[in-house]
């Protein structure tokens, strides 16, 4: 069972919210505490009072993503291409999408199946 450090520590968690719905911070914090209880139950037990009292520091950011969470690799206008919408999956998608974009620009064989390439061009 993990122990919470005696010194100051940074703990990070994330939620993925629909931009069309308002963020309810209390619900997001409850979800993050529930995941912490699964991963580090001892730490969660020590921090639960701070969560309940709202004595936690938070920050918010926005990730660019698409409704189906697939990135976009497509021509927007003549000479203008998009390679965007990775959300939190940039490390897993970026190289493959760059290869696809380069192949499309140079008329080379695509590095992925045509059905997936079409899904990325939605």
What does this structure look like?
The chain is mainly alpha-helical and 122 residues long. Helices cover 43% and strands 9% of the residues. It is built from 4 helices and 2 strands; from the N terminus they run ααββαα. The protein has a two-stranded antiparallel ribbon. The longest helix has 17 residues, at 90-106. The protein is elongated and about 60 Å long. The N and C termini lie far apart (46 Å).
Main attributes?
122 residues; mainly alpha; two-stranded antiparallel sheet; 4 helices; 2 strands; 43% helix
What would you say about this model in short?
The protein has 122 residues and is mainly alpha-helical. 43% of the residues lie in helices and 9% in strands. Helix 1 (25-39) packs antiparallel against helix 2.
Uncertain stretches of 5 or more adjacent residues: none
Q: How far apart, in Å, are the first and last alpha carbons? A: 46 Å
Structure classification: mainly alpha
Range of helix content: 40-55%
Rounded to the nearest angstrom, the radius of gyration is 20 Å
Strand portion, in percent? 5-15%
Biggest sheet strand order reads 1-2
Oligomeric state: single chain
pLDDT averaged residue by residue: 87
Number of strands: 2
The topology string of helices and strands comes to HHEEHH
Shape: elongated
Q: Which sheet architecture does the biggest sheet show?
A: 2 strands, antiparallel
Distinct helical segment count: 4
């Amino acid at each position: 069972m993990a122990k919470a450090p005696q010194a100051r520590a940074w703990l990070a968690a994330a939620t993925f919210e629909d931009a069309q719905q308002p963020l309810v911070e209390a619900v997001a914090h409850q979800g993050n505490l529930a995941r912490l209880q699964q991963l580090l139950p001892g730490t969660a037990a020590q921090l639960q009072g701070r969560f309940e009292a709202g004595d936690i520091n938070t920050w918010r950011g926005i990730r660019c993503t698409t409704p189906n969470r697939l990135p976009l690799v497509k021509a927007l206008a003549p000479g203008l291409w998009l390679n965007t919408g990775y959300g939190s999956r940039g490390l897993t998608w970026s190289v493959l999408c760059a290869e696809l974009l380069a192949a499309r620009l140079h008329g080379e064989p695509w590095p992925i199946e045509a059905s997936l390439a079409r899904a990325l061009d939605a």
